[in-house]
């Protein structure tokens, strides 16, 4: 296997009004034991001191830190996939030919071996094309099982094979994970590799489009409602956030004139729904078998 230390990658950082946490994010990336060849920051019209801070980083690290400055259009989560696509196009135009690239929010702090560990594990598990560590926010470690949006490492050959861009639709982060599985590849969250989100989860977007994304991706209705219920019961998302998810799912299901909420291609939606239906049947079978075993045990005792 190739030495992970000889592998190249670059990082896309998505920033807006990030002055409170930007130093921690970029600082932790610059301190990686396997340093990125470039850190491309997309400044989405910041109105605080973010632009000044980024200018300082460009002066100190002129060969590493690159900044794409966009005009202020107000906050809109729907621009996030567009901004990642802009960063990728910039990297392609600049001839930044690397084997991997990483996506980060502007409020993340990574352990020094984060990138090296992910790449090393992806190299040893060649079928894994998207991975991340496990995010922690406010001292609480995420219980999700799929790669996080921030801290996500992507194999460039796979990214190019699926078009080299995210769709500008709700559910774009999850789209990539299902696309990999549809192609017979794997995605993986490495739970022992913890990184920190410095803002509470969902502080800005309040999960407005999370529910809608489940419709866009073709989620089985029972699976979608079960996930929302699980968030409520286990408090993985705030009560308000869970209600926003439910509202978004119902509204998108009823139809929308917003292109961001248009359903994705039928093939992927069919794949997603089929996978989830199998999961529901498997869980139902497991529950029924356990119930039958308990009844049988009670009968023997009686």
How would you portray this structure in words?
The protein is α/β, with parallel strands linked by helices and 302 residues long. It folds into two domains: 4-205, Spore Coat Polysaccharide Biosynthesis Protein SpsA, Chain A (Alpha-Beta Complex); 207-302, no CATH class. It contains ten helices and nine strands. Strands 1, 2, 3, 4, 5, 6, 7, 8 and 9 form a nine-stranded mixed beta sheet that branches. Strand 2 (38-44), helix 2 and strand 3 form a beta-alpha-beta unit. Helix 7 runs parallel beside helix 9. The longest helix has 36 residues, at 266-301. It is globular. The protein starts with 8 loop residues before the first strand and ends with a helix. The model has no long low-confidence stretch (mean pLDDT 91).
Kindly identify the CATH topology of the largest domain. Spore Coat Polysaccharide Biosynthesis Protein SpsA, Chain A
Q: DSSP helix count?
A: 10
How much of the residues is beta strand, in percent? 15-25%
In CATH, the homologous superfamily of the largest domain goes by the name Spore Coat Polysaccharide Biosynthesis Protein SpsA, Chain A
Category by helix and strand content: alpha/beta
CATH architecture of the largest domain: Alpha-Beta Complex
Spatial extent as radius of gyration: 21 Å
**Would you identify the regions where 5 or more consecutive residues have pLDDT less than 50?**
none
In N-to-C order, the SSE pattern is EHEHEHEEHEEEHHEHHHH
Described by strand count, sense and barrel closure, the largest sheet is: 9 strands, mixed
Annotation, overall tally of beta strands: 9
